[in-house]
Write a structure and sequence with these properties.
Helix content is 29%, strand content 28%. The protein has helices at 34-37, 41-47, 61-71, 112-125, 179-192, 224-233, 242-252, 281-299; strands at residues 6-7, 13-14, 17-18, 24-25, 54-58, 78-81, 87-93, 100-106, 130-139, 149-157, 161-164, 167-170, 173-176, 195-196, 204-213, 237-239, 261-270. Strand 7 and strand 8 form a beta hairpin. The longest helix is centred in the last third of the chain and has 19 residues, at 281-299. The N and C termini lie far apart (40 Å).
């Protein structure tokens, strides 16, 4: 008999993020061991099926490497495997409002659909009330530099359009993050500021605002998608996963009042033009993971804001 139980809790949504279902079996970690599982309040939460406070999704290898580097700083970092073969990394971080339990995994492929499915797996087993999408994006607004990080308040789905005789007409569906999470982000920026210095002589900036998302990869400065996002919505950056996450969250939010929100944390790796490449993926991913690490202590407070 497998001593590590399987849970099948279904898909959930809240305020602007998606969570999708997927049964998962933990291996090699005893949930009953308090030395590894963290705070005593965990026992009460686990009775309701929750074993994580924040879920983290990554897409590219560089993104997962950067997030795992952060999680390994926690003394209780460990790796488990979900049913289907996907690996997850777990760790607990200290915060003023109590320990924050984090679980992170990588999507199977880039794109909105794979991101939604990966989210579903996290929700089914670990049931985190908040999910972060951490990784890289292409910068659209002129003042963003490679290495800067964007915290998105809303996602604009640029794939939505109508084809007509006069050409395509974009509808741009918008999903905003939950108010409770926006308050936490505001608190984070007030306390920590928007300039990050990873080490002496180096710095990057944190920006807050909308991000464009869809399955089309934008690599042309003259792209109709890029121009429309910049002119119509003052979009900061573009990527290919957040739209699926946001839509799924929106569709399921009323079914689970424990869901609190979603958010994207994206490091700028290029300018979303023909000069974009892979050279700065690692830098952008590390900066995004660093901002995630600094943001985590502020996210434990969302339990008190219903």
């Amino acid at each position: 008999m497998n001593p590590y139980p399987s849970y099948d809790t279904g898909m959930t949504v809240s305020g602007g993020t998606v969570s999708v279902g997927g049964t998962v079996t933990a291996v090699g970690h005893d949930e009953r061991d308090p030395a590894r599982t963290g705070p005593s309040r965990r026992e009460t939460w686990d009775q309701a099926g929750r074993s994580a406070d924040v879920g983290v999704l990554t897409v590219l290898r560089e993104e997962m490497v950067a997030v795992v580097e952060v999680l390994r700083r926690a003394p209780d970092h460990r790796t488990e495997r979900m049913r289907g073969g996907a690996s997850v990394h777990r760790a607990t971080f200290a915060a003023e409002g109590g320990p924050v339990r984090v679980v992170a995994t990588q999507t199977l492929e880039p794109g909105t659909h794979s991101a939604a499915l990966a989210y579903q797996q996290l929700r089914r087993y670990f049931r985190p009330p908040l999910v972060l999408l951490v990784g890289i994006a292409g910068g659209v607004r002129a003042d963003l530099a490679v290495g800067d990080v964007v915290l998105s308040d809303e996602v604009i789905w640029y794939d939505s359009r109508r084809e007509s005789a006069g050409g395509p007409r974009r509808r741009g569906r918008i999903q905003a993050t939950a108010p409770v999470l926006r308050r936490r982000v505001s608190d984070f920026l007030v306390r920590r500021g928007t300039v990050v210095r990873p080490q002496p002589g180096q710095e990057f900036h944190i920006h807050r605002g909308p991000i464009g998302s869809g399955n089309a990869v934008v690599t042309d400065s003259g792209s109709a998608i890029r121009s429309w996002l910049a002119e119509t919505h003052e979009t900061l950056a573009v990527e290919t996963e957040a739209a699926g996450l946001a839509q799924a969250f929106y569709e399921e939010v009323d079914e689970d009042d424990g869901l609190r929100g979603w958010m994207t944390v994206r490091g700028i790796s290029d300018r979303a033009d023909r000069h974009g490449g892979h050279a700065d993926h690692g830098l952008a991913a590390r900066h995004a993971a660093l901002v995630m690490e600094r943001l985590l202590p502020h996210l434990c407070l969302i339990e008190d804001e219903r």
